[in-house]
Automatic annotation (TrEMBL):
Residues 17-254 form the ABC transporter domain. GO terms for molecular function: ATP binding; ATP hydrolysis activity; transmembrane transporter activity. InterPro entries: AAA+_ATPase, ABC_transporter-like_ATP-bd, ABC_transporter-like_CS, ABC_transpr_LolD-like, MacB-like_ATP-bd, P-loop_NTPase. One of its GO terms (cellular component) is plasma membrane. It holds the Pfam family ABC_tran. It comes from the Bacteria. The keyword DNA repair does not apply. The keyword Nucleotide-binding applies. Keywords: ATP-binding, Nucleotide-binding, Transport. The lineage of its organism: Bacteria, Bacillati, Actinomycetota, Actinomycetes, Glycomycetales. This is Putative ABC transport system ATP-binding protein.
Length: 256
Protein backbone atom coordinates (compact mmCIF):
# COMPACT_ATOMS: atom_id res chain seq x y z
CA UNK A 1 0.00 0.00 0.00
CA UNK A 2 1.10 3.57 -0.62
CA UNK A 3 3.02 5.29 2.13
CA UNK A 4 3.43 8.91 3.12
CA UNK A 5 5.50 11.03 0.78
CA UNK A 6 5.21 8.86 -2.33
CA UNK A 7 2.85 9.21 -5.28
CA UNK A 8 3.19 5.68 -6.61
CA UNK A 9 0.30 3.24 -6.96
CA UNK A 10 0.62 0.27 -4.60
CA UNK A 11 2.95 -2.40 -5.99
CA UNK A 12 1.19 -4.76 -8.38
CA UNK A 13 -1.81 -2.45 -8.84
CA UNK A 14 -2.74 -1.23 -12.31
CA UNK A 15 -2.94 2.50 -12.87
CA UNK A 16 -6.30 4.07 -13.76
CA UNK A 17 -5.06 7.64 -14.14
CA UNK A 18 -1.51 8.83 -14.57
CA UNK A 19 -0.31 12.42 -14.47
CA UNK A 20 3.27 13.30 -15.42
CA UNK A 21 4.64 16.79 -14.89
CA UNK A 22 1.18 18.35 -15.09
CA UNK A 23 1.06 22.14 -14.82
CA UNK A 24 -2.09 24.25 -15.08
CA UNK A 25 -1.63 27.99 -15.11
CA UNK A 26 -4.36 30.61 -15.32
CA UNK A 27 -4.02 34.23 -16.41
CA UNK A 28 -5.55 36.50 -13.80
CA UNK A 29 -5.23 40.05 -15.19
CA UNK A 30 -1.48 40.60 -15.51
CA UNK A 31 -0.76 37.83 -12.99
CA UNK A 32 -0.28 34.10 -13.66
CA UNK A 33 -1.75 31.69 -11.11
CA UNK A 34 -0.16 28.24 -10.98
CA UNK A 35 -3.00 25.95 -9.91
CA UNK A 36 -1.06 22.73 -10.59
CA UNK A 37 2.71 22.79 -10.34
CA UNK A 38 4.46 19.81 -12.02
CA UNK A 39 2.18 17.16 -10.53
CA UNK A 40 3.15 13.48 -10.91
CA UNK A 41 0.42 11.13 -9.70
CA UNK A 42 -0.79 7.54 -10.16
CA UNK A 43 -4.38 6.71 -9.26
CA UNK A 44 -4.69 2.94 -8.72
CA UNK A 45 -7.42 0.85 -10.35
CA UNK A 46 -10.14 -0.47 -8.06
CA UNK A 47 -9.33 1.82 -5.15
CA UNK A 48 -11.07 4.71 -3.47
CA UNK A 49 -8.76 7.75 -3.64
CA UNK A 50 -9.50 11.01 -1.83
CA UNK A 51 -7.95 14.35 -2.74
CA UNK A 52 -7.89 16.95 0.00
CA UNK A 53 -6.07 20.15 0.83
CA UNK A 54 -6.65 23.77 1.82
CA UNK A 55 -8.89 26.02 -0.26
CA UNK A 56 -7.08 27.07 -3.43
CA UNK A 57 -4.56 24.20 -3.26
CA UNK A 58 -5.59 22.90 -6.71
CA UNK A 59 -8.00 20.02 -5.91
CA UNK A 60 -10.72 21.03 -8.39
CA UNK A 61 -8.15 21.82 -11.06
CA UNK A 62 -6.62 18.37 -10.55
CA UNK A 63 -10.04 16.73 -10.87
CA UNK A 64 -10.95 18.76 -13.96
CA UNK A 65 -7.65 17.98 -15.69
CA UNK A 66 -7.55 14.30 -14.71
CA UNK A 67 -11.11 13.77 -15.98
CA UNK A 68 -10.56 15.58 -19.27
CA UNK A 69 -12.89 18.48 -18.44
CA UNK A 70 -9.92 20.87 -18.61
CA UNK A 71 -6.57 20.75 -20.41
CA UNK A 72 -3.27 21.27 -18.60
CA UNK A 73 -0.84 23.96 -19.72
CA UNK A 74 1.90 21.29 -19.91
CA UNK A 75 2.51 17.68 -18.94
CA UNK A 76 0.66 14.49 -19.87
CA UNK A 77 -2.43 12.73 -18.51
CA UNK A 78 -3.45 9.17 -19.28
CA UNK A 79 -6.72 7.42 -18.51
CA UNK A 80 -5.67 3.78 -18.61
CA UNK A 81 -3.43 3.55 -21.68
CA UNK A 82 -5.07 6.49 -23.45
CA UNK A 83 -3.25 9.81 -23.40
CA UNK A 84 -5.93 12.49 -23.20
CA UNK A 85 -3.63 15.50 -23.41
CA UNK A 86 -3.43 16.57 -27.02
CA UNK A 87 -6.81 15.02 -27.92
CA UNK A 88 -9.29 17.17 -29.80
CA UNK A 89 -12.28 18.37 -27.79
CA UNK A 90 -14.73 16.05 -29.60
CA UNK A 91 -12.55 12.99 -28.88
CA UNK A 92 -12.15 14.03 -25.24
CA UNK A 93 -15.92 14.50 -24.92
CA UNK A 94 -16.49 11.01 -26.32
CA UNK A 95 -13.87 9.53 -23.99
CA UNK A 96 -15.48 11.24 -20.97
CA UNK A 97 -18.89 9.96 -21.99
CA UNK A 98 -17.65 6.38 -22.41
CA UNK A 99 -15.03 6.00 -19.69
CA UNK A 100 -15.62 8.59 -16.97
CA UNK A 101 -18.50 9.18 -14.53
CA UNK A 102 -19.09 12.31 -12.44
CA UNK A 103 -20.80 12.96 -9.12
CA UNK A 104 -21.24 16.56 -7.94
CA UNK A 105 -22.05 18.18 -4.60
CA UNK A 106 -25.36 19.47 -5.96
CA UNK A 107 -26.34 16.09 -7.55
CA UNK A 108 -27.06 17.77 -10.95
CA UNK A 109 -30.05 15.53 -11.69
CA UNK A 110 -32.44 16.71 -14.41
CA UNK A 111 -35.53 17.96 -12.50
CA UNK A 112 -38.01 17.14 -15.27
CA UNK A 113 -36.89 13.50 -15.66
CA UNK A 114 -37.81 10.59 -13.42
CA UNK A 115 -35.05 9.03 -11.32
CA UNK A 116 -35.02 6.04 -13.68
CA UNK A 117 -34.59 8.27 -16.72
CA UNK A 118 -31.91 10.30 -14.93
CA UNK A 119 -29.94 7.13 -14.18
CA UNK A 120 -30.07 5.90 -17.79
CA UNK A 121 -29.46 9.32 -19.37
CA UNK A 122 -25.72 8.68 -20.06
CA UNK A 123 -26.69 5.59 -22.09
CA UNK A 124 -29.19 7.54 -24.18
CA UNK A 125 -26.62 10.31 -24.76
CA UNK A 126 -24.10 7.70 -25.93
CA UNK A 127 -26.77 5.92 -27.99
CA UNK A 128 -26.16 2.72 -26.04
CA UNK A 129 -28.68 0.07 -25.02
CA UNK A 130 -29.02 -0.57 -21.29
CA UNK A 131 -27.61 -3.84 -19.95
CA UNK A 132 -30.78 -4.79 -18.04
CA UNK A 133 -29.08 -7.20 -15.64
CA UNK A 134 -26.49 -4.57 -14.69
CA UNK A 135 -29.16 -1.87 -14.36
CA UNK A 136 -31.18 -4.11 -12.05
CA UNK A 137 -28.12 -4.85 -9.88
CA UNK A 138 -27.05 -1.22 -9.83
CA UNK A 139 -30.46 0.03 -8.70
CA UNK A 140 -30.41 -2.61 -5.97
CA UNK A 141 -26.90 -1.55 -4.88
CA UNK A 142 -27.93 2.10 -4.52
CA UNK A 143 -31.22 1.15 -2.83
CA UNK A 144 -33.55 3.03 -5.18
CA UNK A 145 -35.86 0.23 -6.24
CA UNK A 146 -39.42 1.55 -5.91
CA UNK A 147 -38.34 5.17 -6.37
CA UNK A 148 -37.57 5.09 -10.09
CA UNK A 149 -40.76 6.85 -11.16
CA UNK A 150 -40.28 9.79 -8.81
CA UNK A 151 -38.79 13.15 -9.78
CA UNK A 152 -35.58 14.32 -8.06
CA UNK A 153 -37.50 16.91 -5.98
CA UNK A 154 -39.47 14.03 -4.42
CA UNK A 155 -36.29 12.41 -3.01
CA UNK A 156 -34.11 13.26 0.00
CA UNK A 157 -30.59 14.63 -0.55
CA UNK A 158 -29.04 11.24 0.21
CA UNK A 159 -31.39 9.47 -2.21
CA UNK A 160 -30.62 12.05 -4.91
CA UNK A 161 -26.89 11.55 -4.39
CA UNK A 162 -27.35 7.77 -4.62
CA UNK A 163 -29.21 8.31 -7.91
CA UNK A 164 -26.35 10.52 -9.10
CA UNK A 165 -23.89 7.73 -8.25
CA UNK A 166 -26.01 5.21 -10.17
CA UNK A 167 -26.06 7.59 -13.15
CA UNK A 168 -22.26 7.91 -12.91
CA UNK A 169 -21.89 4.11 -12.86
CA UNK A 170 -24.52 3.10 -15.42
CA UNK A 171 -22.14 3.13 -18.39
CA UNK A 172 -19.55 1.16 -16.36
CA UNK A 173 -16.88 3.87 -16.51
CA UNK A 174 -13.20 3.20 -15.82
CA UNK A 175 -13.27 5.87 -13.13
CA UNK A 176 -15.81 7.95 -11.22
CA UNK A 177 -14.78 11.46 -10.16
CA UNK A 178 -16.73 12.90 -7.25
CA UNK A 179 -16.46 16.59 -6.35
CA UNK A 180 -17.44 17.16 -2.69
CA UNK A 181 -20.19 14.51 -2.96
CA UNK A 182 -21.13 14.80 0.70
CA UNK A 183 -20.85 18.60 0.93
CA UNK A 184 -24.63 19.15 0.92
CA UNK A 185 -25.54 16.22 3.21
CA UNK A 186 -25.97 15.93 6.97
CA UNK A 187 -23.44 13.77 8.83
CA UNK A 188 -25.50 10.57 8.93
CA UNK A 189 -26.55 10.76 5.27
CA UNK A 190 -22.98 11.63 4.27
CA UNK A 191 -21.75 8.50 6.08
CA UNK A 192 -24.33 6.38 4.23
CA UNK A 193 -23.27 7.79 0.84
CA UNK A 194 -19.60 7.19 1.70
CA UNK A 195 -20.45 3.61 2.72
CA UNK A 196 -22.02 3.16 -0.71
CA UNK A 197 -18.90 4.57 -2.43
CA UNK A 198 -16.78 2.15 -0.39
CA UNK A 199 -18.99 -0.80 -1.40
CA UNK A 200 -18.82 0.14 -5.09
CA UNK A 201 -15.04 -0.07 -4.75
CA UNK A 202 -14.80 -3.23 -2.62
CA UNK A 203 -17.66 -5.19 -4.26
CA UNK A 204 -17.48 -4.00 -7.88
CA UNK A 205 -13.81 -3.01 -8.13
CA UNK A 206 -14.83 0.50 -9.21
CA UNK A 207 -12.11 3.19 -9.23
CA UNK A 208 -13.32 6.34 -7.45
CA UNK A 209 -11.53 9.67 -7.02
CA UNK A 210 -13.20 12.05 -4.57
CA UNK A 211 -12.30 15.68 -3.86
CA UNK A 212 -13.29 16.68 -0.35
CA UNK A 213 -12.61 19.29 2.33
CA UNK A 214 -13.75 16.87 4.99
CA UNK A 215 -11.11 14.76 6.81
CA UNK A 216 -13.85 12.37 8.00
CA UNK A 217 -14.89 11.73 4.36
CA UNK A 218 -11.28 11.41 3.17
CA UNK A 219 -10.55 8.90 5.94
CA UNK A 220 -13.05 6.51 4.32
CA UNK A 221 -10.85 6.25 1.21
CA UNK A 222 -8.03 3.73 0.65
CA UNK A 223 -5.55 6.46 -0.24
CA UNK A 224 -5.63 10.21 0.43
CA UNK A 225 -3.66 12.62 -1.74
CA UNK A 226 -3.00 15.84 0.19
CA UNK A 227 -2.47 18.94 -1.95
CA UNK A 228 -0.80 22.23 -1.06
CA UNK A 229 -0.07 25.15 -3.39
CA UNK A 230 -0.65 23.11 -6.55
CA UNK A 231 1.64 20.28 -5.46
CA UNK A 232 1.16 16.93 -3.81
CA UNK A 233 2.28 17.28 -0.22
CA UNK A 234 1.59 13.65 0.80
CA UNK A 235 -0.01 10.45 -0.36
CA UNK A 236 -1.31 8.65 2.72
CA UNK A 237 -2.65 5.10 3.01
CA UNK A 238 -5.77 4.93 5.17
CA UNK A 239 -4.92 7.87 7.44
CA UNK A 240 -7.23 8.56 10.37
CA UNK A 241 -9.56 11.58 10.23
CA UNK A 242 -7.60 13.06 13.16
CA UNK A 243 -4.30 12.76 11.31
CA UNK A 244 -5.80 14.35 8.19
CA UNK A 245 -7.41 17.19 10.19
CA UNK A 246 -4.06 17.85 11.84
CA UNK A 247 -2.23 17.79 8.48
CA UNK A 248 -4.79 20.13 6.93
CA UNK A 249 -4.57 22.55 9.87
CA UNK A 250 -0.78 22.71 9.49
CA UNK A 251 -1.06 23.38 5.74
CA UNK A 252 -3.71 26.06 6.34
CA UNK A 253 -1.29 27.77 8.78
CA UNK A 254 1.29 27.74 5.95
CA UNK A 255 3.51 25.08 7.56
CA UNK A 256 4.97 22.36 5.31
N1 LIG B 1 -10.51 29.95 -14.05
C1 LIG B 1 -9.58 30.40 -13.22
N2 LIG B 1 -8.97 31.59 -13.43
C2 LIG B 1 -8.00 32.06 -12.60
N3 LIG B 1 -7.58 31.38 -11.50
C3 LIG B 1 -8.16 30.20 -11.23
C4 LIG B 1 -9.19 29.65 -12.05
N4 LIG B 1 -9.57 28.45 -11.53
C5 LIG B 1 -8.82 28.28 -10.42
N5 LIG B 1 -7.97 29.31 -10.24
C6 LIG B 1 -6.98 29.47 -9.16
O1 LIG B 1 -6.21 28.28 -9.12
C7 LIG B 1 -5.91 27.93 -7.77
C8 LIG B 1 -6.44 26.52 -7.51
O2 LIG B 1 -7.87 26.54 -7.59
P1 LIG B 1 -8.76 25.25 -7.33
O3 LIG B 1 -10.18 25.66 -7.53
O4 LIG B 1 -8.24 24.12 -8.10
O5 LIG B 1 -8.48 24.98 -5.77
P2 LIG B 1 -9.31 24.06 -4.74
O6 LIG B 1 -8.29 23.39 -3.89
O7 LIG B 1 -10.26 23.21 -5.48
O8 LIG B 1 -10.08 25.17 -3.92
P3 LIG B 1 -11.47 25.07 -3.09
O9 LIG B 1 -11.23 24.04 -2.03
O10 LIG B 1 -11.64 26.44 -2.52
O11 LIG B 1 -12.55 24.68 -4.05
C9 LIG B 1 -6.56 29.00 -6.89
O12 LIG B 1 -5.57 29.98 -6.61
C10 LIG B 1 -7.63 29.58 -7.79
O13 LIG B 1 -7.90 30.92 -7.44
Amino acid sequence: MTVSGTTEAPAGTATAIRLDGVCRRYRDGDRTVTALDAVDLRIPVGRFTAVMGPSGSGKSTLLHCASGLDTPTSGTIRIGDTEITGMRETARTRLRRERVGFVFQSYNLMPSLTIGDNITLPLRLADRRPDHAWLHDLIGHVGLRGLLNRRPSELSGGQQQRAALARALVARPDVVFADEPTGALDLRTAAEVLDLFGRMVSELGQTIVMVTHDPVAAARADVTVVMSDGRIADTLARPSAERLAHRLARLERGAA
